Amino acid sequence: MFKSATARTVPRALASRAFARTLAESSTFRPPFIPLVADSGFPGAIGNTPLIKIQGLSKETGANIYGKAEFMNPGGSVKDRAALFIIQDAERKGLIKPGGTIVEGTAGNTGIGLAHVCRARGYKCVIYMPDTQSQGKINHLRFLGAEVHPVPAVAFDNPMNYNHQAKRHAESLENAVWTNQFDNIANRQAHIETTGPEIWAQLNGEVDGFTCATGTGGSLAGTARYLKNISDGKVQAYLADPPGSVLYSYITSGGKLTERSGSSITEGIGQGRITDNLRPDIDILDGALQISDEKTINMVYRLLDEEGLFLGASSCLNVVAAYELAQKLGPGKNVVTLLCDGADRYVDRLFSRKWLQSKNLDILPEHLQKYIALP
Ligand SMILES: Cc1ncc(COP(=O)(O)O)c(C=O)c1O
């Protein structure tokens, strides 16, 4: 008959002492914040991500710098939250019925989030994206069952821009919705109802600062709005912006919208206009931080080396911004940002020496050089 490992190998007295210790430890056990059962399937597993304290940067500043581990969402990014809320909103408004089609123009994480939720809810998913995007991204969406249309990369004012094509595609079908992530405020609502409250609960209301970058603006606007409201304006909320976005100068100039100039290696963030998601909340922001690609790339490797965190560039830009905000707010303060997705989706670029050289970003200190694993 099978005997347990304890009975076979550990003398009885020793085993019972170990058992007593296990029981004593379990009396201090605190229930986990994360629900263990996602009864509604994939959608129920979205959100409730941990807050990870960034040890090295916290020590350096004397503040507590936390990154919300959005890369742990089941579709791998912060955009799972928006994808779910946008689809639920369309269902509630009767815009889509069982068997319908979700159409979006996106090159990135929103498409992945939508494709997952579509499979879980029984919808078809159609994605338009510029044909300049990597084959890896196109493949990823196709693996998830999405119909992908790579189309010529033309400016927004051209009717053949991928967003307009997505809209027309949805209009040409029965029972289809163009989800329009940039101006669909169900996106922002996801962060008002989930990201913001989670951060507030996780830190017992002791939040002093929040910062993150914007693509659609949903994450920054929704989270900042919730944290400002619940704290009576006490939480300092800052935009983190890459070069090539107009928002930093818009905020720091008191509302002047300039022509877009410059560019950044970050993906999924940086904006040329004030989206409907950002508009209601842009005036509640306390300031903006512009983060160079050099600082972002350095942080990609530093977080890997010091913290074991393998993160995409937008997350690392966010962490640089959180570090700068922590320096502004001072020791003892709690500053939070978002770790939007992992580095896996960008390894061909971020970890290639040739690519770094092509962007004049082969700038890492000697001790971090060993992580550049690709030629
Ligand atoms: C990697 C990454 N980071 C940040 C963002 C920005 O999030 P939001 O659209 O909520 O502004 C996105 C958006 O697609 C993204 O893909």
TrEMBL record:
Its cofactor is pyridoxal 5'-phosphate. Its main location: mitochondrion. PROSITE patterns: CYS_SYNTHASE (PS00901). Residues 45-341 form the Tryptophan synthase beta chain-like PALP domain. It is an enzyme of class 2 (transferase). One of its GO terms (molecular function) is cysteine synthase activity. One of its GO terms (biological process) is cysteine biosynthetic process from serine. It catalyses: O-acetyl-L-serine + hydrogen sulfide = L-cysteine + acetate; O-succinyl-L-serine + hydrogen sulfide = L-cysteine + succinate. Keywords: Amino-acid biosynthesis, Cysteine biosynthesis, Mitochondrion, Pyridoxal phosphate, Transferase, Transit peptide. GO terms for cellular component: mitochondrion. Its EC number is 2.5.1.47. Pathway: Amino-acid biosynthesis; L-cysteine biosynthesis; L-cysteine from L-serine: step 2/2. It is found in: Mitochondrion. Catalyzes the conversion of O-succinyl-L-serine into cysteine, the last step in the cysteine biosynthesis pathway. Can also use O-acetyl-L-serine. Belongs to the cysteine synthase/cystathionine beta-synthase family. This is Cysteine synthase 1. The lineage of its organism: Eukaryota, Fungi, Dikarya, Ascomycota, Saccharomycotina.
